[in-house]
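User: Last request for today: this protein with zinc ion, please.
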Amino acid sequence: MKCPFCKEDSDKVVDSRSSEMGRVIRRRRQCLACGRRFTTYEKIGESFKLSVVKKDNMRVPYDRDKVVGGLQKACYKRPVSAEQIQQIADKVEEDIFRNFDKEVSSAFIGESVMRHLRATDKVAYIRFASVYRDFKDADELIDEVSQAIAETERAGQPRLFDV
Ligand SMILES: [Zn+2]
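Assistant: Here's the final one, the structure of the complex with zinc ion:
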C-alpha cells in the first residue's frame, strides 16, 4: 500500500478493525520507510470501489488524495499537523462508509469535511467553507464567521485571527 506521505510502497499493519457489521475492514498501517501511520479501508469479498457523484451528475472514482489535498489547502499555515489531517480524512471516510455503499455525492463529502474541520480549526474551516459552500452573499459569510468567533471565545481557544 502506497504511503500517502512519502509514496513508498512498504508498510506493516499495526491494527485492523472491522466496521459496518464486518463489511469494511479498517487497517491502520505504518510506513516502513518514513514511520508515519495511515489508514486504509477494504471491503470484504470485493475490491473497494466507491464513486463520487458530482454536482453535474458526473461520476468519478473516490480519491482520498483529493480530500487530503483540500484539507491541506485549508490548513495552510495553520497549527494542524499532517497527522491531524489524516485523522480528519479518516473521520470523513467513516462517515461515508457508514452511509453509502457504492456511490456518495460530492456534497456529502464536502459537508462531512466541513463538520470535522470545524471541530479542529475554525480558520481552516472558514477557508474551506468559503470556497466550498460558495456563500450566497457577504451577510451569510459574516454570520458564519461571527458564529465561529463566538464559539472560539466560549471555548477559550486562542483568538481566531491571530494568524
Ligand atoms: Zn512513508
